[in-house]
């Protein structure tokens, strides 16, 4: 059975430091015998401001982060799913939040542009307006074959919407990925519940690589990267920011991986044993 590995670290605005962390995670995944490595959203950088994000954002053809990761994937013959930023072709003021698949030859073979932007105004809590800087995508990417099963790509805040994962499932997804950088308070409240719900209702593996720790003065992430099986069991997980704990800085965070087998035989058996026949005649709105 193939092993999926999930990598967790704390990105900063240093592309070279982030590439070094991801290269280390790739080696850990290879040493464990994994068939693919899943890395978080915005692995190339977490900027301190929208203007810094724009200045760091580069096309994949010149990004030292992406080119470096492609070279490592090829060297180790290990496919990677990773979240990155790309310039927006229609606006110089905006970027695209992407999840890409790099195959074992180091080529980018699949791409998905995050369709839901994270705009929240929590009193006394995180306030973010991703839509100010980020152009949302307008299509899902059809699930595609990989060494760990048929993968459907989503990103972070997309997790709060059951519809896209159900759509990917209907199109054949066996593994749904959510590279993420969840905030600490929303992570503590919602992350695990949402991931397990998406796995149970799609009857698919959910693979969620997340950032952890303090990226900069104004920004920290929750962690708890995990793999959930189609029964809703957490079969692998990394560390998280506990309630009341001060997030560690990037220098203090130890990049780590967790791994789990992807059992597609069990998935098929479960889908047969618990058929989820939808009644769209009763709820045509969805
Ligand atoms: O900023 C970047 O460069 C990359 N983008 C992100 O990290 C995005 C937008 S700020 N974060 C989320 O979607 C967190 C969602 C979340 O925390 C929740 O749904 O509760």
TrEMBL record:
Protein name per the record: Nitrilase-like protein
Coiled-coil annotated residue ranges, if any: none
GO molecular function, a single term: hydrolase activity, acting on carbon-nitrogen (but not peptide) bonds, in linear amides
Pfam families for this protein: CN_hydrolase
Record's keyword annotation contains Glycoprotein: no
Stored InterPro entries: C-N_Hydrolase (IPR003010), C-N_Hydrolase_sf (IPR036526), Nit1/2_C-N_Hydrolase (IPR045254)
PANTHER family membership: DEAMINATED GLUTATHIONE AMIDASE, NITRILASE-RELATED
All copies of domain CN hydrolase, residue ranges: 1-264
Domain of life: Eukaryota
Keyword check for Transferase: no
SUPFAM superfamilies, per the entry: Carbon-nitrogen hydrolase
Keywords annotated in UniProt: Hydrolase
Species: Morchella conica CCBAS932
């Amino acid at each position: 059975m193939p092993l999926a590995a999930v990598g967790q670290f704390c990105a900063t605005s240093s592309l070279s430091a982030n590439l070094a962390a991801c290269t280390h995670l790739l080696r850990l995944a290879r040493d464990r015998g994994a068939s693919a490595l899943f890395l978080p959203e915005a692995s190339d950088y977490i900027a301190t401001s929208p203007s810094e994000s724009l200045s760091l954002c580069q096309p994949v053809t010149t990004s030292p982060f992406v080119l470096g990761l492609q070279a490592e994937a090829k060297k180790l013959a290990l496919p990677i799913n990773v979240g990155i930023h790309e310039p927006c072709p229609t606006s110089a003021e905006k970027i695209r939040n992407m999840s890409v698949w790099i195959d074992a030859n180091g080529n980018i073979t699949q791409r998905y542009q995050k369709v839901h932007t994270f705009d929240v105004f929590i009193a006394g809590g995180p306030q973010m307006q991703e839509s100010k800087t980020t152009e949302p995508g307008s299509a899902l990417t059809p699930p595609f074959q990989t060494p760990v099963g048929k993968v459907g790509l989503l990103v972070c805040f997309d997790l709060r919407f059951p519809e896209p994962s159900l759509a990917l499932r209907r199109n054949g997804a066996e593994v749904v990925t959510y590279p993420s950088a969840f905030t600490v308070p929303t992570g503590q409240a919602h992350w695990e519940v949402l991931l397990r719900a998406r796995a149970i209702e799609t009857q698919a593996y959910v693979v969620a690589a997340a950032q952890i720790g303090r990226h900069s003065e104004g920004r920290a992430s929750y962690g708890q990267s995990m793999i959930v099986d189609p029964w809703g069991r957490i079969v692998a997980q990394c560390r998280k920011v506990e309630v009341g704990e001060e997030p560690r800085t990037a220098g203090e965070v130890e990049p780590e991986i967790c791994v789990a087998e992807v059992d597609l035989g069990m998935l098929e058996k479960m889908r047969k044993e618990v058929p989820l026949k939808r009644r769209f005649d009763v709820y045509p709105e969805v």
